[in-house]
């Protein structure tokens, strides 16, 4: 899910102005909510609406949430409070809709299978996952384009369109789902099934209480036998099967803690990379599309080549083997992410917390000399309108700057701020600035401002940056009117692309010129556009950099996505199959909901780490998660060694028999009292003693154990 929500991260940072840690915490809190609510959806499904009815009704609710999300992205003024409130409501509605649907979809699909074609389940889950990621691919490719290349409501980005189009598509998909109703196998809800969510923990608690109170009863094979006096033999047996699966879920959340960071930390890392690819620009929220792309490519390869090949060596034949390998590989992806982050930091020249930078543009037609007495540094700007980076290690306090032009000296008092760039423009009589610039533009943006130096042939000009050579009003992405000599415009963040500039002066002889910028503006760059006189055209433009743009290619993230995709195929697809096939028929929805809960717990870990700000360096946080998943993997592998598999076809056949026999058997069976269970009357012990080897000894009956299951093992 996280990979298709990268646009949400940019919405939080670029539109609602949250910082990176807060954005990460909000993003993963939303995912937590999406994966906590499946329990509610499962109860609704099993108690009243059924799987089909739940999917239909909550899909409508999900569509409404998407519409609200699109509305929340419409700017209602400079204050974003109303937008935050609407976005919070929309995210809550979406979470309830998507969360309620999740535990119903795969079981609903599984309901279309019988004992005759259950062997096709592994293939089905691969196809099921394939189609999900095909949709995710379309979303991750299209949504960033709608956001980044379309302007609306006076903004240079169009988040309403990015959220609105998926809302429309969701409404259409609901209609398509309804059209297929007559072909579905629709099972009616069993109200008693909803009670499982309360009855299962009650039975486990009773078994523990009974074991503590009376100790181990003779000939009991595991602690759930202690619940037999209160619950039917089939129910106790099903709970025992369920618990065996749930225990294997304990190390699983750490995988999701890593996997879901594709949409948060990995997207935020992509903001610091160069997305230029020839004439095209890959947006930060588009790079997450690599995951569904690789999934679509890798799934057939794994199913037709890798799994059969390794099966000959008796490798990857069992689901838990695949899942353990997937966990280990995920750690490698985060090791790579950590080292890449260190490399980005080494190339970006990031300022430390107590440092600032000063950049000077010479607006004169003669040489100027500068001296920082506090930093013990001097330099000269020989060319007119040339620019010089100041020292990077200026401590955050006050400084004096001495400027020498010809025979005159001027001393200026400068106030610098932490992690900010102070841009200065030298004129004949002053050193001017109107703002400081934060170190890096947010998101996939560049920062620009316009300065007009000393000119004599015109007194004012209008300046525009346009997306095409026509440079009409509709194509202006940045516009400054009536800028005069020694004026500096306010800085603005605009999108990454190749621009044309238009300068219209108040001199009719010079008129208007439209030219293409020599170079494409790249993310992370802070550009100063200086309007100067030109002997040929009367006016021209010089571009300077106050901060170098991102230099490391966004394609450096490709190996991360290759590795995490391989781990997803091994872990997530196999995990869906494992959870469905190993759970008893009566508790498949409950088991699926428990599987989804592991995602919520994993994202809770990310929220805690992000909000606590334990790591001052993002790379160290990546290394922490890499170590955590490897430790979890070791625990999972040890647990897997002792797990005994159940043949899913046996469970289905048993379910068919139980459906016709269980009611009568449960009515005719006499519940054994606690005193009898302890052995005081001898009844319970005697019933257990007569069970033969290979039988399931759950009082008051003996049943054959499902194929492949050794019931002798203690849970």
TrEMBL record:
<feature type="transmembrane region" description="Helical">
    <location>
        <begin position="558"/>
        <end position="580"/>
    </location>
</feature>
<feature type="transmembrane region" description="Helical">
    <location>
        <begin position="25"/>
        <end position="44"/>
    </location>
</feature>
<dbReference type="InterPro" id="IPR000109">
    <property type="entry name" value="POT_fam"/>
</dbReference>
<dbReference type="GO" id="GO:0022857">
    <property type="term" value="F:transmembrane transporter activity"/>
</dbReference>
<dbReference type="Pfam" id="PF00854">
    <property type="entry name" value="PTR2"/>
</dbReference>
<keyword id="KW-0813">Transport</keyword>
<protein>
    <submittedName>
        <fullName>Uncharacterized protein</fullName>
    </submittedName>
</protein>
<comment type="similarity">
    <text>Belongs to the major facilitator superfamily. Proton-dependent oligopeptide transporter (POT/PTR) (TC 2.A.17) family.</text>
</comment>
<keyword id="KW-0472">Membrane</keyword>
<keyword id="KW-0571">Peptide transport</keyword>
<keyword id="KW-1133">Transmembrane helix</keyword>
<keyword id="KW-0653">Protein transport</keyword>
<dbReference type="GO" id="GO:0016020">
    <property type="term" value="C:membrane"/>
</dbReference>
<feature type="compositionally biased region" description="Low complexity">
    <location>
        <begin position="660"/>
        <end position="671"/>
    </location>
</feature>
<dbReference type="GO" id="GO:0006857">
    <property type="term" value="P:oligopeptide transport"/>
</dbReference>
<keyword id="KW-0812">Transmembrane</keyword>
<feature type="transmembrane region" description="Helical">
    <location>
        <begin position="120"/>
        <end position="142"/>
    </location>
</feature>
<dbReference type="InterPro" id="IPR036259">
    <property type="entry name" value="MFS_trans_sf"/>
</dbReference>
<feature type="transmembrane region" description="Helical">
    <location>
        <begin position="622"/>
        <end position="643"/>
    </location>
</feature>
<feature type="transmembrane region" description="Helical">
    <location>
        <begin position="592"/>
        <end position="610"/>
    </location>
</feature>
<keyword id="KW-0732">Signal</keyword>
<feature type="transmembrane region" description="Helical">
    <location>
        <begin position="162"/>
        <end position="185"/>
    </location>
</feature>
<feature type="transmembrane region" description="Helical">
    <location>
        <begin position="239"/>
        <end position="259"/>
    </location>
</feature>
<feature type="transmembrane region" description="Helical">
    <location>
        <begin position="56"/>
        <end position="75"/>
    </location>
</feature>
<dbReference type="InterPro" id="IPR018456">
    <property type="entry name" value="PTR2_symporter_CS"/>
</dbReference>
<feature type="transmembrane region" description="Helical">
    <location>
        <begin position="323"/>
        <end position="344"/>
    </location>
</feature>
<feature type="transmembrane region" description="Helical">
    <location>
        <begin position="293"/>
        <end position="311"/>
    </location>
</feature>
<feature type="transmembrane region" description="Helical">
    <location>
        <begin position="81"/>
        <end position="99"/>
    </location>
</feature>
<feature type="signal peptide">
    <location>
        <begin position="1"/>
        <end position="18"/>
    </location>
</feature>
<feature type="region of interest" description="Disordered">
    <location>
        <begin position="657"/>
        <end position="715"/>
    </location>
</feature>
